[in-house]
Amino acid sequence: TICALRESKVELMCSYSHINTTTVFWFSPKQKAKWRNEEHPEDLALDSDYAGRVSYTETTGSSSTLTITDLRERDSGEYHLMLFTNTGEKYHSSTAVNLTVTDLQVRVAPPYGLQKGLTCSTSCTLTSIPERYYWYKNGQYTNKFTEGNRVHYLFSSDEGSYSCSVYGFNDILSPPVCVFSKTCWSVTYTDRRVCSVEGSSVELPCTYSYPSNKKVEHTFWYYVRPNEDPQDLSLEEQFTGRVEYVGDEEKNCTLRIRELRKSDSGEYRFRFSGKTRRAVFSGKPGVIVNVIDLQVRVSLTPVSEGQTVTLSCSSTCTLPYNPTYIWYKNGQPVTNKPTKHNKLYLQCSENSDNYSCAVRGHEEHRSPAETINAKCPEGRTVLKHVTVGVAICLALILLTGALWMWRRNSRSAEDHKRFEKKAEMSLYIIFYENTSDGSMGFKSGILSLSILLLIPGVFSKTCWSVTYTDRRMCAVEGSSVELPCTYSYPSDEKVEHTFWYYVRPNEDPQDLSLEEEFTGRVEYVGDEEKNCTLRIRELRKGDSAEYRFRFSTSTERGKFSGKPGVIVNVTGTCSHQLLQVKVSPTPRSEGQTVTLGCSTICTLPNNPTYIWYKNRQPVTNKPTKHNKLYLELAEGEGGLQYSCALGGPEESTVSKHVTVGLAVCLALILITGALWMWKRNYSSATDLPQVKGSCTVCMSGRVLMF
């Protein structure tokens, strides 16, 4: 039995005598509900519960090691090794490797005088790990540790939130426990690791607490970058229009991120602060987000009935909530093949086709199409089919010979092709597990039969497919946009017609270049080979929609549309429709540094250039970076207007203004009264309106007025 820590890594090894194996994999009986047949174990590497977390290391003919990373408590159970030999025999380990996954827990020991004691423990004794525990207060390492079951004692002056880690795993902390207080500084993330599909949305559930005599004034999430100060995520250019803080100023700190990209992968932390400099707390370690693409994995699994191809819809990390998987064959949903969870089962002799998969609810984000190249190994199952079909084969030899003679007796080439196709289909039906239909010709009946018997399987190298570089595009009204695209098709086909179309429900595809509203504005910049890129000029808001590429060949079946297509979002040029200036943190006093962020409602491509203006004059003497402008508040500068624009002069682009008043607002001071202002000097930021769009901020010393 092995005891391992949650979120850590474990290696399980199984040895066996020298055997000539063809297939080796691990399985766990607790996963049998996800197998097609509970009597036939399936490869753990294809199981969606272990996606991206398992790997095998094999020492030829003697042992195999299973490595599981990012352990979860549900991984606890038995693990076996399965072997298949080149003679078709199968073996599995008689003794299982037992795994128990545990978590760290801080327990408060009975008081000792004025002291309280803490112990760090697990539900089982960790395997091969020294029992040395390190202690953290309010998320910070205290430079103290205890051995084994020894107690860590605290005095009342040590009030705070405490957690522990174990030797070798300092980044895995126990849930915090509040000592000498009912409420402490803490941030708790429901999930420490989150996996999601590119293009989808994700929520990072989070709660936080703080001493009852404190008041929170500012909250934000940030993306962890080494050696950089935390920056409000909502002001980050790459997250513009895609992040939403759905928490509150009390306990909930949940974050939502939309339209996920691979570049969003990383660690996210929540941070909140009070009035004083000491009242700042970050929840660390944070939440690790992995944004992934789906992939189709192919596995040949020997079973008693013969060879079966198992297609697995895999990811590099484990998706939450047991998602439902959808399979597609040549772009169309698969409805007549057996499936189980994330797996699709095929006979290995079936035609070579394009297979892809998606998660239900995110069908527009499919995996890349996979063409099955694996050939069925020769084995006793194939020989059985050949033996059973010998008599019928002899009849087919006579039939194909007669057809060959018929051709020699002046039958037209067209008739020959027709009879040829019938003969091939007949052979295909008999040797279903050995051949693919329509992919091989013949010179005579006997020769064609010989070829089909000697070659186990034939799969085409190219199939019908359309690939879009970007699935979503954002552009400004009046600008131009390109939709990069490539396509492929079987080598025996010839493309005759290509076009893009605007998707309208319940309407047939229409060539975009013939649409009246696109006259003179669309240009197909691809070719008749592989490139299918489209350019649209002078974009209008009405152009927002889904676009797909379609091509056809000379054959009746040679029509293919790339779906789902490209979603184009055209934003208006009015200031309130595209740009807005955001301020962080809320301006409070002179000497404070604030960040102005020029944000767009959707993420523009090609890293646009942002220009800042002060009172309609370009800003040249202030530090800027990407879409941000950094200001140090000072008295005596008067009311200043700051605005931003995308490229070009301010007058010719979209912009949004924010007015930041940094002078003494004498008029407002006279109206409201100096005494009232002094009383409000240290009022909470939660009483101040959020700075969005156009607003006026007036300051007098440390007095902030609106």
Automatic annotation (TrEMBL):
Pfam families: Ig_2 (PF13895), Ig_CD22 (PF24518). Coiled coil: none annotated. The chain crosses the membrane at residues 386-406, 658-678. Most highly expressed siglec (sialic acid-binding immunoglobulin-like lectin) on B-cells that plays a role in various aspects of B-cell biology including differentiation, antigen presentation, and trafficking to bone marrow. Binds to alpha 2,6-linked sialic acid residues of surface molecules such as CD22 itself, CD45 and IgM in a cis configuration. Can also bind to ligands on other cells as an adhesion molecule in a trans configuration. Residues 1-79, 118-166, 285-373, 564-655 form the Ig-like domain. This is B-cell receptor CD22. It comes from the Eukaryota. Predominantly monomer of isoform CD22-beta. Also found as heterodimer of isoform CD22-beta and a shorter isoform. Interacts with PTPN6/SHP-1, LYN, SYK, PIK3R1/PIK3R2 and PLCG1 upon phosphorylation. Interacts with GRB2, INPP5D and SHC1 upon phosphorylation. May form a complex with INPP5D/SHIP, GRB2 and SHC1. Keywords: Membrane, Transmembrane, Transmembrane helix. The keyword Acetylation does not apply.
